[in-house]
Recover the amino acids of this structure.
């Protein structure tokens, strides 16, 4: 036998490890960046980090390619050609910031709302929102309205928390994990870690999803539901659980408003509101004495049914009675809903039985005493080990808000929120809507030259909180918090450009955007948006959106449409605070936050957007950003992170305050960032064991939350199965109160704003003919691309370089289609030509594709014949931001009527086989964008990353 | 022809749990990331930003579907070198570049001797070897031989990059020569199997099959059979009894 070569098995790995936070998506994992010769040798997960515990996904592992992307912008630019041409001239930062200041200062002095400031999927909204507020414009939001605001708002208004990454299943104790819809987006590594735990323990994973991809692939049971009907399925499950007595009565009575008394006085202005005592507290019935008492009364047995006559007219009954009247009807019987939801009645019953089995036959008890908010002591923590998760699968429908509420009500019926084995909050949640600010932006809250009186985004509690002018018209450019979208907690980013161009409700002077690819995948009606961005006023020759400032790190499709480019850094070149004031990295058992810091200084003339914003704020003299003498208060974002105080002792980072020893509250610590770096770029503090479950009602947690600065006083509350806020809007639509919806929206508000969760058919499906457009069309992003800026990433694009339209076998047979054939897909709005792939695990009336893989020719420094441009496509071309006209000629926004959430999963289409003589190229195609002053004008053809080390080390490999 | 050593007592390899793999591609990319700057030549990418991007990878995840309708099942199937005991890629090698280590059974390529003839890839029934387009040498999974014994790494990190990074814990590394190792026990308990055993390659790597779908049973269905609660009168009677018990 030949002599075996000796292999070097202990090579040096790196010169140094620098620990920071990943930003390849929105998950915020801790990473160890191995540095060798001042280049990245390797990026791995940080084992100590609360989010990812050492693991790292495909995106995070491809970070090297992102950091060295040829599409990185290299210096500020101003537009010299027509908009959309991509013709720019490099300028200095001083010139760029002077231009921006000259554009913005006059707006602030005259009418601050003429600035619309919208950001994409960034994670610095504690800063950006505050900046907008100090500028004085209400026209601020991030991309939540396009993303999953229904899950945020539906959650906050119902349970004071939300899925997103703001809560998590109790992975170690759950018996059954139910996943509704595509959810590979937020919290991605924690969910994958959790799935591994649940499956590893042999417990049940159930998926309700028209498409069996990703997480659904490993489910023990898959319900291939018809899109947009989840609410109907959930209410059918609620009905079956109620009728069989499989509900947690004690939980409902203690922790929800199910026993609260509701006034039933049809036609009166108090119909449907809670019966309140003199102190304003909702009332309940003492089951033993029959007395009407405050829900806060200690040690009473509260009734779940009964009726109290009222002197003022009408009667009052517990919410629970209304629930039985609403849900225990034949309208929600499995037999009634089966054909609509696309799941047999027997399977629906089986689903209900499985939930009952896991929740009640497999109860979990932890021997941990605790004290509730009333002061009642409990010896144990009892759990119903059913956990759930959902995101855009439910959210991105026009009935998504109510469906999200229904899902939370199902969880509450099972007694499975914030209990052992159930679904749990991560701080700063639980936090009910009352504990959030209300949005600012009423006419008297916006004043020339002054800050807005509060944060632009918040939670309204009724019509009085809407942002309307004296004519009852929208105050905000996106019409958030108007009757178009009254409970728009995240704004409506998808309506900003079309509204501003239409001058409805008004025109803006400057559109300022960050990390939001509106000229491509972050808009509905992509071609229309490109046209709008270049549309001119025929009288003046000026663009209808006169000035557009954009910040991005890469040459995305949107860059070509800006007038002024403020180039951002990569994620390894920047400071960030992943803050308790915004979206921290907390766990259900701990509070935690994190930083990013420049692992490498930028090697180009680029600056972190947040530092630029602070600089701009100082140049504009915004309060809080300048000293009394007008000089800048903060040198940059790092300085702001360390020294800014939102309230005395409360800053962007909760860890290492004071002299480094204080958590939550404490004076600013000049060494804070260094302390974070020394601690792996994060800070973490465990919740006391007594406070880990029932947080909304648990005094140990509430006191801990106050200590950590999450709130100033304990704020225990009951879950709101019945939403009085929704009923207030409903009453307005019925003609009560001073602030009422315009006539054309009145019927819609009456139908959709029900105080108990309801289901109505998605709007687009109702507006178009089912015969003409019989098929549902969806998009979702693959795990290796979700929320990533990844298409210029040469590794990830080898995994997902183009996207077929997946179609079910039956449809393929009907249309004579095989894999690789091309089809026309047509909606009421548009038409696309795309390649197909046949898939078995797919609802029979649904087709779908990967989102945002398709790229515009020339963008992202890809070569013009890249598959992303030739075969990749966007479904967005089929989705219009407005629905077809109603009978009265009105065109509704293609959004949830409650929150304004973009309803891009409501899409209905028809398909047709493409004539084989047509070119096998995706349609539509757009003119190629020029190379936009990015790092490499001609990207390398052959990439050999690591060559310098492998060549250098080669001899060492074969030890003699 | 290159000869194989006597079967080693230590047989290092991977066991991959197909019941848990969600197809997230984390292992695929992390492997590329570690190895492009590691053993041998970089894992190059041709047409990196162009029309036909294609590079060498040591690990790929394939997806398959079985069944139709509600019984349809997607299986994600990660595939890399199986470090076979009777490795045909080694015996096929005309230069001795392909070899199997006598001490732990890892199959490697000595790139200095590799002439890029491709015979090994042709002989591998699993398609687990890929020719690097730029270097013209054969690349394959090294089981991260430069990690698993690496004294410059903390001990807990001395596992292949794919195992360390796997978010769902679907990949496990160990000694299949030891019947008491974690991986051997896992294979015994879960019915771990060889890929294409009829090829006679005796792969060291194993796969754990997807568990059969746990459909609901009649027992849980009986939980819905509380007919009394199904009428309003019966329901409120049930409620009163429940409240009475709760106090």
């Amino acid at each position: 036998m030949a002599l075996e070569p000796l292999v070097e098995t202990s090579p040096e790995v790196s010169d140094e490890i620098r620990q920071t936070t990943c930003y390849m998506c929105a998950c915020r994992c801790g990473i160890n960046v191995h540095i060798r010769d001042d280049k990245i040798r390797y990026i791995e997960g940080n084992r100590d980090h609360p989010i990812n515990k050492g693991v790292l996904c495909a995106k995070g592992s491809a970070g090297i390619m992102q950091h060295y992307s040829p599409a990185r912008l290299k210096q500020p630019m101003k537009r010299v050609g027509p908009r959309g041409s991509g013709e720019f001239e490099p300028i200095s930062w001083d010139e760029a910031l002077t231009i921006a200041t000259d554009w913005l200062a006059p707006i602030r002095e005259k009418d601050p709302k003429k600035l619309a400031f919208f950001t994409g999927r960034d994670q610095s909204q504690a800063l950006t929102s505050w900046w907008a507020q100090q500028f004085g414009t209400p026209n601020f939001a991030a991309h939540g309205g396009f993303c999953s605001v229904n899950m945020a708002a539906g959650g906050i208004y119902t349970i004071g928390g939300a899925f997103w990454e703001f809560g998590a299943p109790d992975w170690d104790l759950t018996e059954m994990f139910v996943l509704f819809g595509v959810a590979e987006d937020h919290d991605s590594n924690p969910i994958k870690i959790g799935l591994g735990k649940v499956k590893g323990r042999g417990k049940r994973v159930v998926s309700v999803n028209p498409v069996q991809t990703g997480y659904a692939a490993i489910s023990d049971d898959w319900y291939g539901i018809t899109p947009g009907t989840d609410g109907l399925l959930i209410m059918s499950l609620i009905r079956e659980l109620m009728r069989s007595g499989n509900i947690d009565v004690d939980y409902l009575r203690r922790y929800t408003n199910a026993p609260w008394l509701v006034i039933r006085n049809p036609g009166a202005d108090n119909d449907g509101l809670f019966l309140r005592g003199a102190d304003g507290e909702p009332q309940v019935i003492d089951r033993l004495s029959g007395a009407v008492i405050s829900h806060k009364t200690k040690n009473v047995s509260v009734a779940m049914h009964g009726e109290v006559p009222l002197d003022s007219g009408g009667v009052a009954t517990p919410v629970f009675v209304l629930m039985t009247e609403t849900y225990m009807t034949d309208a929600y019987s499995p037999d009634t809903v089966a054909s609509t939801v696309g799941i047999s009645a027997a399977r629906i019953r089986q689903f209900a039985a499985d939930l009952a089995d896991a929740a009640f036959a497999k109860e979990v008890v932890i021997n941990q005493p605790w004290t509730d908010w009333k002061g009642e002591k409990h010896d144990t923590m009892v759990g119903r080990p059913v956990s759930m998760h959902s995101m855009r699968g439910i959210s991105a429908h026009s009935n998504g808000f109510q469906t999200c509420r229904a899902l939370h009500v199902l969880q509450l019926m099972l007694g499975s929120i914030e209990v052992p084995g159930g679904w749990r909050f991560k701080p700063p949640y639980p936090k009910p809507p009352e504990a959030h600010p209300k949005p600012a932006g009423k006419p008297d809250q916006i004043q020339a030259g002054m800050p807005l009186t509060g944060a632009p985004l918040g939670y309204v509690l009724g019509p009085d909180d809407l942002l309307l002018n004296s004519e009852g018209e929208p105050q905000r450019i996106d019409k958030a918090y108007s009757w178009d979208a009254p409970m728009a907690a995240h704004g409506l980013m998808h309506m900003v450009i079309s509204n501003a161009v239409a001058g409805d409700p008004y025109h803006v002077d400057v559109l300022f955007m960050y990390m939001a690819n509106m000229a491509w995948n972050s808009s509905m009606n992509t071609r229309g948006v490109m046209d709008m961005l270049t549309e001119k006023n025929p009288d003046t020759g000026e663009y209808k959106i006169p000035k557009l400032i954009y910040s991005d790190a890469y040459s995305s499709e949107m860059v070509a449409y800006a007038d002024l480019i403020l180039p951002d850094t990569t994620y390894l070149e920047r400071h960030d605070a992943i803050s308790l004031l915004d979206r921290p990295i907390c766990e259900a058992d701990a509070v935690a936050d994190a930083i990013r810091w420049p692992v490498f200084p930028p090697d180009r003339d680029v600056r972190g957007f947040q530092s630029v914003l602070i600089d701009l704020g100082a140049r504009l003299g915004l309060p809080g950003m300048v000293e009394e003498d007008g000089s800048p208060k903060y040198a940059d974002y790092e300085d702001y992170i360390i020294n800014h105080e939102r309230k005395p002792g409360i800053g962007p980072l909760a860890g290492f305050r004071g002299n480094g020893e204080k958590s939550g509250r404490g004076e600013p610590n000049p060494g804070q960032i260094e302390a974070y770096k020394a601690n792996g770029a994060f800070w973490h503090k465990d919740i006391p064991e007594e406070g880990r479950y029932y947080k909304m009602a648990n005094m140990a947690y509430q006191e801990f939350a106050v200590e950590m600065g999450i709130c100033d006083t304990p704020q225990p509350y009951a879950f709101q199965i019945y939403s009085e806020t929704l009923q207030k809007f409903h009453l307005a639509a019925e003609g009560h109160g001073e602030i009422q919806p315009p006539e054309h929206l009145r019927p819609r508000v009456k139908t959709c704003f029900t105080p108990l969760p309801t289901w109505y058919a998605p709007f687009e499906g109702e507006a178009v003919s089912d015969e003409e457009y019989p098929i549902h069309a969806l998009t979702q992003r693959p795990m290796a691309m979700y929320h990533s800026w990844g298409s210029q990433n040469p590794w990830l694009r080898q995994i997902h370089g183009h996207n077929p339209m997946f179609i079910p076998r039956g449809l393929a047979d009907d249309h004579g289609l095989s894999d690789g054939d091309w089809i026309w897909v047509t909606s009421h709005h548009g038409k696309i030509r795309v390649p197909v792939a046949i898939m078995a695990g797919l609802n029979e009336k649904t087709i779908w594709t990967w989102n945002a893989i398709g790229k515009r020719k020339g963008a992202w420094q890809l070569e013009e014949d890249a598959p992303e441009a030739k075969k990749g496509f966007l479904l967005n071309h089929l989705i219009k931001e407005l629905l077809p006209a109603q009978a009265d000629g009105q065109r509704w926004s293609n959004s949830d009527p409650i929150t304004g959430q973009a309803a891009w999963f409501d899409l209905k289409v028809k398909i047709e086989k493409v004539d084989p003589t047509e070119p096998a190229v995706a349609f539509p195609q757009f003119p190629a964008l020029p190379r936009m002053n990015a790092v490499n004008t001609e990207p390398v053809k052959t990439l050999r990353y690591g060559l310098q080390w492998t060549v250098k080390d080669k001899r060492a490999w074969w030890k003699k | 022809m290159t000869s194989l050593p006597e079967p080693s007592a230590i047989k290092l390899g991977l066991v991959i749990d197909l019941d848990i793999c969600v197809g997230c591609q984390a292992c695929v990319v992390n492997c590329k990331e570690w190895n492009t700057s590691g053993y041998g030549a970089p894992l190059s990418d041709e047409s990196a930003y162009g029309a036909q991007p294609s590079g060498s990878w040591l690990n790929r995840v394939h997806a398959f579907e079985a069944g139709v309708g509600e019984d349809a099942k997607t299986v994600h199937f990660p595939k890399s070198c199986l470090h076979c005991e009777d490795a045909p890629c080694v015996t096929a090698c005309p230069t001795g570049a392909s070899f199997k280590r006598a001490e732990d059974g890892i199959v490697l390529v000595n790139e200095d001797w590799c002439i890029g003839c491709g015979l090994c890839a042709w002989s591998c029934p699993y398609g687990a070897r890929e020719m690097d387009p730029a270097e013209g040498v054969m690349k394959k999974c090294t089981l991260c031989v430069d990690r698993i014994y690496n004294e410059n790494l903390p001990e807990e990190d001395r596992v292949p990059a794919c195992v360390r990074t796997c978010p769902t814990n679907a990949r496990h590394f160990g000694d299949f020569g030891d019947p008491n190792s974690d991986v051997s026990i896992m294979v015994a308990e879960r019915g771990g199997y060889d890929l294409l055993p009829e090829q006679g390659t005796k792969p060291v790597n194993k796969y754990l099959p997807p568990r059969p779908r746990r459909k609901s049973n009649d027992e849980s269905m009986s939980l819905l059979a509380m007919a009394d609660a199904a009428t309003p009168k019966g329901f409120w009677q049930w409620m009163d009894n429940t409240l009475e018990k709760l106090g």
